[in-house]
Specification:
This protein is of the alpha+beta class. The protein is built from six helices and ten strands. The chain binds flavin mononucleotide.
């Protein structure tokens, strides 16, 4: 067996003092349970608890996934929000196939949440408000609108960023029209609580006709 393979086999999972999860006491609304788990991660000082993997597919059905930051959760609609440039690969994929999946993993708690559903683009006003709430550097970068295009010359990036900063200094309210706040309207949310002895607990919520139901799943 190769050294790396052995090293991977020897690494621990689900170690440490894990929280408990009683699915019988779980709320009827998965947004409430998600919020409780997220706040528990924040309280425990877990780094970047709002980082999540966003999975999309392109028009040929090929999946792609990347990490993004959760911007907000709208409990009334079960809406998880994130923002992206419409012309980025993920933006183009969401235009072609407006469905996505999100995965959160809070390692010290051995907790995973999987969320899936259709994605809608919010109004230009809401998208602009999201953009204007970003820090200056993040806005200057996003104004470039060239995310994931080939970068042949790093000097070109520095010059473009400097031009973007100059533009923001002249027009502090500049907003790229392609900046989009997206809302994933969950129709499925699964909570997974890991256990050191592999007695993992899975609670799966499904929404049908606007009503949430939940059931346990085999781990
Ligand atoms: C912790 C973390 C947070 C990130 N947050 C964002 C984000 O909020 N928005 C974003 O466009 N990219 C973010 N990225 C970069 C994306 O993972 C990705 O590289 C980029 O959006 C290009 O993706 P695309 O080519 O699929 O469009 C983040 C990466 C990491 C590791």
């Amino acid at each position: 067996m190769s050294e790396l393979r052995q090293l991977l086999r020897d690494l621990e999972v689900f170690a440490g003092d894990l929280p408990t999860f009683d699915p019988a006491a779980a709320p009827a609304d998965p947004a409430a349970l998600f919020t409780a788990w997220l706040l528990a991660a924040v309280d425990a000082g877990i780094p970047e608890p709002h980082a999540m993997t966003l999975a999309t597919v392109d028009e040929d059905g090929a999946p792609q996934a990347r990490v993004l930051i959760l911007k907000n959760l709208l409990p009334a609609t079960g809406g998880w929000q994130f923002a992206a440039h419409l012309a980025s690969p993920k933006g183009r994929q969401l235009t072609a196939v407006p469905r996505a999946a999100l995965t959160f993993y809070w390692q010290p708690h051995a907790r995973q949440v999987r969320i899936a559903g259709p994605v809608v683009a919010e109004t230009p006003e809401r998208s602009a408000a999201d953009f204007l709430a970003r820090g200056r550097t993040a806005r200057a970068e996003a104004l470039l609108g060239r995310q994931s295009g080939p970068l042949t010359d790093p000097a070109e990036r520095a010059a473009a960023l400097a031009a973007s900063r100059d533009r923001l200094a002249r027009e502090p309210d500049a907003v790229p029209p392609e900046w989009t706040l997206y809302t994933l309207l969950a129709d499925r949310v699964e909570f997974w609580q890991g256990d050191r002895d592999r007695r993992h607990t899975r609670l799966d919520y499904r929404r049908t006709d606007g009503r949430w139901t939940s059931q346990l799943l085999w781990p």
